[in-house]
């Protein structure tokens, strides 16, 4: 890594953009379609949406962060962190109320008393300052397009401001700020505005329906209207629909499907945070909590995958300081689910800090991938961890590799690797994973070899005699994420990871009741894969940490040129 870094600095000084060569080449033939549960491109090849949410729906109605960094720098950071898409939020009134949409960026900030942000925009994005806020929104979409970033336009709320509560009058059709006809007008306006903008690949029609007015009759009535309106104004975009109760519930669709005039363009979005279930993760046994919450989520929304619809997890995320136990346990569980189902997703959030959120100027976003200055990565270990989820494991048209298994370790985002026959099995990039198979006899096989338990605290082995109990691996515990086997004296052991990331077997931990322990290191998922994928993302992610230094070099170079 060190060598690479100095080469990087050297090339940066020469003004060579090394990120360009590191990025995955994004060859997506737009527009996108759906093919059963998958999102595919114009050639029928799977496109996995690995998005990050970029808020632009708060009081200013301006994409956050533009006072901290030039829009093009932010777009490039998004790509270099491995995301291929942005869920870009907008408030309805931006599109329906000209006295809001047509005020300039400067006026918007002035009316909120955000003079410091104005100075920041003057420095970082001077050309935006006197544009109407609706045009500033278009400029950001355009810049994302220039950087090969796909965009989901997300109608997040009606009245600009932080979202969401049951009492904010923006929750459901008929609420004070949620007139269904005005909503359809706004959707139509945005769909029309971006008809022909090829990187706008989808529109999510309304974020997190909620509150006392919720009912399924109105859901069908207005969601169908909204979907048809968007589709006729812009037949290229995917239409993404939210469920009830903060986008957690689609249970009603199990018995009564939607009735739309178009096909191949409909997807659903689900939201799932740790705090969706209060403090359940912290206060319960992680295996039991993971098991029961996942089965709930499958019953309320995940079942749509089996019915042949894409389900995009458009909000999830954690406090990246790593100190929130509730979030940390949830993360290990959700990573397992996201890998197993190979979900499309959008992380909350890109934001390092907000211009103004809930009355606080410059509020830090602990769930944001960028730091307060929108300069470096808040926590690069988090980006490395989720990088395996940024590329598809399976889906139509990806490669000719045979269907096989990889053994994914959610706590690290890595997979079990065989380095050589002489070295212990270890964790490494899923991109380098061997092609495992998992038989009906519960054996985990590589060609001519099987995974074996050798003893408590000892490395798991690859052997050739595969009919003993120590070659049988059963997914146990309520989470079904412990892989357990029996050693020769009959003791049950579980696959685990030691401090050097070697694969060992230990006593199975936290199987029941215990709320204090964290089974994360023993959680694995056997995941279907058809890809032998090449990924440079991890390398890029590590380098990104130094992007602030990169800015300093840029400043130094300008000085140098002047001399
Ligand atoms: C448009 O927004 C302005 C400013 O918030 C507000 O005073 C006005 O009532 C809104 N107009 C409509 C038609 O909602
Ligand atoms: C959207 O753009 C397409 C061309 O991409 C055009 O054929 C169609 O008429 C446009 N639709 C509307 C409603 O403007
Ligand atoms: C679906 O909608 C069409 C009109 O768009 C209508 O003719 C048809 O009866 C509806 N089907 C169902 C099952 O409601
Ligand atoms: C990043 O996350 C890890 C793991 O959750 C945590 O241990 C670490 O302290 C975090 N680093 C920072 C800078 O917040």
UniProtKB/TrEMBL annotation:
The keyword Endoplasmic reticulum appears for this protein: no
List residues traversing the bilayer: none
User: What keywords were assigned to this record?
Assistant: Glycosidase, Hydrolase
Pfam families for this protein = Cellulase (PF00150)
Domain Glycoside hydrolase family: start-end pairs: 70-351
GO biological process: one example: polysaccharide catabolic process
Gene Ontology MF terms in the entry: hydrolase activity, hydrolyzing O-glycosyl compounds
Which SUPFAM superfamilies does the entry mention? Answer: (Trans)glycosidases, Ricin B-like lectins
* Highest rank taxon of the organism: Eukaryota
The keyword Hydrolase is annotated on this UniProt entry:
yes
Per the similarity annotation, which family is this? Answer: Belongs to the glycosyl hydrolase 5 (cellulase A) family.
**Protein name per UniProt:** Glycoside hydrolase family 5 domain-containing protein
């Amino acid at each position: 890594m060190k060598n690479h870094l100095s080469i990087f600095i050297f090339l940066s000084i020469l003004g060579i953009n090394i990120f360009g060569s590191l990025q995955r080449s994004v060859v997506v033939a737009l527009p996108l379609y759906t093919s059963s549960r998958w999102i595919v491109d114009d050639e029928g090849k799977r496109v996995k949406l690995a998005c990050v949410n970029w808020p632009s729906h708060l009081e200013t109605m301006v994409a956050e962060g533009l006072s901290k960094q030039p829009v093009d720098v932010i777009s490039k950071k998004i790509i270099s962190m491995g995301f291929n898409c942005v869920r870009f939020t907008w408030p309805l009134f931006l599109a329906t109320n000209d006295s809001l949409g047509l005020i300039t960026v400067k006026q918007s900030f002035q009316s909120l008393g955000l003079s410091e942000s104005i100075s920041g925009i003057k420095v970082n994005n001077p050309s935006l300052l006197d544009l109407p806020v609706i045009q500033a929104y278009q400029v950001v979409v355009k810049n994302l397009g220039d950087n090969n970033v796909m965009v989901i336009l997300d109608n997040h709320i009606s009245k600009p401001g932080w979202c969401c509560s049951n009492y904010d009058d923006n929750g459901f059709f008929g609420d004070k700020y949620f007139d269904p006809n005005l909503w359809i007008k706004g959707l139509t306006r945005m769909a029309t505005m971006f008809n022909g903008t090829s990187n706008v690949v989808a529109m999510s029609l309304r974020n997190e329906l909620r509150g006392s007015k919720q009912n399924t009759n109105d859901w069908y009535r207005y969601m169908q209207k909204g979907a048809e309106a968007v589709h006729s104004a812009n037949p290229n975009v995917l239409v993404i629909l939210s469920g009830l109760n903060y986008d957690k519930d689609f249970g009603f669709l199990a018995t009564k499907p939607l009735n739309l005039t178009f096909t191949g363009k409909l997807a659903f979005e689900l939201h799932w945070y740790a705090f969706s279930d209060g403090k359940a993760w912290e206060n319960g046994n992680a295996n039991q909590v993971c098991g029961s919450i996942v089965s709930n989520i499958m019953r309320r929304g995940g079942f749509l995958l089996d019915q042949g619809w894409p389900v995009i997890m458009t909000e999830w995320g954690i406090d990246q300081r790593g100190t929130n136990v509730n979030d940390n346990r949830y993360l290990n569980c959700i990573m397992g689910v996201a890998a197993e189902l190979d979900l499309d997703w959008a992380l909350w959030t890109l934001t390092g800090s907000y211009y103004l959120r809930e009355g606080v100027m410059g509020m830090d976003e602990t769930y944001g991938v960028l730091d307060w200055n929108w300069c470096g990565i808040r926590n690069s270990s988090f980006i490395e961890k989720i990088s395996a989820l940024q590329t598809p494991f399976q889906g139509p048209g990806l490669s000719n590799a045979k269907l096989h298994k990889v053994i994914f370790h959610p706590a690290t985002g890595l997979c079990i690797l065989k380095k050589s026959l002489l070295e212990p099995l270890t964790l490494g990039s899923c991109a380098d994973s061997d092609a495992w198979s998992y038989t009906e006899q519960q054996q985990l096989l590589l060609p001519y070899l099987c995974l074996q338990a050798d003893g408590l605290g000892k490395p798991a082995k690859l052997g050739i005699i595969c009919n003993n109990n120590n070659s049988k691996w059963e997914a146990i515990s309520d989470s079904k994420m412990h892989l357990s086997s029996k050693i020769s004296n009959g003791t049950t052991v579980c696959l685990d990871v030691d401090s050097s990331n070697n694969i060992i077997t230990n006593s199975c931990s936290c199987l029941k009741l215990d709320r204090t322990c964290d089974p994360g290191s023993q959680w694995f998922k056997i995941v279907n894969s058809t890809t032998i994928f090449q990924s440079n993302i991890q390398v890029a992610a590590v380098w990104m940490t130094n992007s602030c230094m990169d800015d300093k070099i840029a400043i130094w170079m300008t000085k140098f040129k002047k001399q």
